[in-house]
Design brief:
The chain has 24 helices and 23 strands. The chain is of the alpha/beta class. The protein has three domains: 205 residues, Rossmann fold (3-Layer(aba) Sandwich), CATH 3.40.50; 161 residues, TPP-binding domain (Rossmann fold, 3-Layer(aba) Sandwich), CATH 3.40.50.1220; 190 residues, Thiamin diphosphate (ThDP)-binding fold, Pyr/PP domains (Rossmann fold), CATH 3.40.50. The strands form five sheets. It has a six-stranded parallel sheet with strand order 5-4-6-7-9-8, sandwiched between helices. α12 links the parallel β15 and β16.
């Protein structure tokens, strides 16, 4: 070893490299990797575990209860930090790594950075077949870790210690890229983890990164501005990319300068305050009557930082067929969807350039007034929808109670089932960037695990605020172990556990398409001799949380005040009605597959309605 090199194992070099990477955020330098989540096994404990032991201060390691939830927590951590920081997840070879697959898919769908450092079979193959190894008789190089290629933005298997000199910077560049951002997977064979190499010392020197801002092409700006200048009924769709770009101020200034109504996607919730004059509400299947009325009438639509998912577009029925879409997006793939006029580039720079090119333009007063009137009607609906006592206990009532009592900077987390729709439609944004509704992958189990990851991130910047989780009984039963994690680590959560007796939102979909209730609500499961409820409060208490059951929204309000005052995780359980508790307004059409042939007249009628509505779909690519 020369003075220009240092001899380290592969695992030691990976950890030392990560500890040396920093990022500049708002003029301040901070370590880009906030640490990691890890469960050790024979595939990662002896080498990677040895390396991490010496970096506990620089890269704190949180021990999760299962690998899938660790991945969810890492995704939520990255989302809180607007993709500027990430966590790694380390799992052992075999089932430990396999458990990360769903979390990787969630991070991929949501374009969130997460680094997976996963054990693998021995490169030499001398001890094969080893414990937990999958054998492919005709392809000995193929293994479980190859399955992550479909859910990773960057994938590599380290077969020699020198490879990380190229692989680690490449993985980091992917996770920081505005267009290609997503999870990176590095497979680490057990023997290679411990092999040593003389690494150049330059690899471990401190490096400060900055997120790239791509200036849009001048011709694309000119074309977009020309289309928008002709608009008589323009509209802006604000997506999650607005926040990732740090372009909230530019979006607000652009909308105000040109008097253009703004609607928000699910990922874009909390781009504007609820009270902003041009905030027309959430759009789409889980949206608002106001946003959808404006979308249906708009002639030019500026999409900013959106991937135009079907819940946003109403399966492409939410807009007029002849409406022109202009898509400002860092990703070329997203910018060109449905024959959009593409503007490929950073949202912040793109809005500034568009604003300059559109100087002097304002939308007609009648159009902006129409949007305000529609939003006023929606506000009145929401006020009544969340009012306690207006019907049996409902999601909306619980959301309204929390909304009234929480602090503006408290963070709200929800995912999957009926709650994303209810939070999206009924939550009144109190401060920018405070809502995390995971609906890119609509993944059950994200709620509590994601809340834990968000709280870890929140405690770094806003330790006096709370992370509030809305979760249904179905997701709770799927994944709840991070209640224990939050108590163990002192990362307080307030968890609203709303029990409707099963998978009630899918039962609603079942009924709405003419089908009979079957195998969704516990009482409708043919293999259940006698249905009974779970004592969720007792279960949560057994993991160390404060826990109580309440009977109505008034009791929930008092319990929430107690949870706010406590310094420990609190779980509040309330039953909600599975049939009458839903928000009934604000929905666009959503395409689901229905049977063309059925013995049920109701199913045939529902199929005919679906086919009729399909005629409204825009045709595009």
């Amino acid at each position: 070893m020369s003075k220009d090199t240092i001899r380290l194992t592969t695992a030691q070099a990976i950890v030392r490299f990560l500890a040396a990477q920093f990022i500049e955020i708002d003029g301040e330098k901070t370590r880009i990797c906030g640490g990691g989540f890890g469960i050790f096994g024979h595939g990662n404990v002896t080498c990677l575990g040895e390396a991490l032991y010496n970096y506990q201060d620089e890269l704190p390691l949180y021990r999760g209860q299962n690998e899938q939830s660790m991945g969810f927590a890492a995704a939520a951590y990255a989302k809180y930090h607007l993709r500027r920081r990430f966590m790694f997840c380390t799992a052992s070879a075999g089932p430990g790594t396999a458990n990360l697959l769903t979390a990787a898919a969630l991070a991929h769908a949501n374009r969130l950075p997460m680094l997976m450092l996963c054990g693998d079979a021995f490169l030499t193959r001398l001890p094969d077949p080893v414990l937990q190894q999958l054998e492919h008789f005709g392809n000995p190089a193929l293994g479980l870790n190859d399955g992550f290629k479909a859910v990773s933005r960057y994938w590599d298997r380290i077969t020699h210690p020198a490879q990380i000199i190229q692989s680690l910077p490449a993985a980091l560049a992917t996770m920081l890229d505005p267009a290609d951002c997503g999870p990176a997977f590095i497979a680490l064979p057990q023997d290679v983890q411990g092999w040593a190499y003389d690494y150049p010392v330059e690899l471990f020197e401190e490096k400060t990164h900055r997120i790239r801002r791509q200036m849009p092409d001048a011709h694309e700006i000119a074309d977009a501005a020309a289309a928008l200048r002709k608009a008589e009924r323009p509209m802006i769709i604000a997506g999650g990319g607005v926040q990732y770009s740090g372009a909230v101020a530019e979006l607000t200034e652009f909308a105000e300068a040109h008097a253009i109504p703004v609607v928000e996607t699910i990922a874009g919730r909390a781009n504007l305050l609820d009270t902003h004059d041009l905030n027309t509400g959430p759009i789409g299947v889980t949206g608002s009557d106001s946003a959808n009325a404006v979308a249906e009438a708009a002639d030019v639509i500026l999409s900013v930082g959106c991937r135009l998912q079907d819940f946003t577009t109403g399966s492409w029925t939410a807009f007029a067929k002849d409406a022109q879409i202009v898509s400002l997006n860092a990703g070329r793939h997203d910018a060109g969807k449905h024959l959009s006029l593409p503007v490929v580039g950073d949202a912040k720079l793109g809005l500034e350039a568009l604003g300059t090119a559109m100087a002097g333009y304002k939308a007609p007063e009648g159009w902006t007034g129409f949007a305000r009137e529609e939003r006023a009607k929606w506000n009145a609906y929401v006020a009544e929808n969340v009012r306690p006592g207006n019907r049996p206990n409902s999601y909306a009532q619980a959301i309204g109670v929390v909304n009234d009592l929480c602090d503006p900077r408290d963070r709200v987390v929800a995912a999957a089932g009926g709650l994303p729709a209810e939070v999206t439609a009924n939550w009144r944004t109190l401060d920018i960037g405070t809502v995390d509704v995971e609906f890119g992958f609509s993944c059950m189990g994200y709620e509590i695990a994601g809340g834990w990851g968000a709280r870890i991130a929140q405690s770094e910047k806003e330790p006096d605020q709370d992370t509030i989780v809305f979760v249904g009984d179905g997701s709770y039963l799927l994944m709840n172990s991070d209640i224990y994690s939050s108590v163990l680590t002192g990362k307080k959560l307030i968890i609203m556990m709303l029990d409707n007796g099963g998978f009630a939102v899918i039962n609603k979909l079942q009924n709405n398409t003419g089908n009979e209730s079957f195998n969704n609500l516990i009482e409708d499961c043919p293999t259940v001799p006698e249905a009974f409820g779970v004592d969720f409060a007792a279960h949560a208490a057994s993991m160390g949380a404060n826990a109580e059951k309440v009977d109505n929204p008034a009791e929930l309000a008092e319990a929430f005040k107690r949870a706010k005052a406590s310094d420990k995780t609190s779980v509040i359980v309330m039953n909600v009605d599975a049939y009458e508790g839903w928000t009934t307004e604000g929905h666009t059409w959503w395409e689901v597959g229905t049977p063309e042939v059925s013995e049920s007249a109701r199913v045939r009628e529902a199929h005919a309605e679906v086919e009729s509505a399909r005629a409204r779909q825009r045709k595009g690519v």
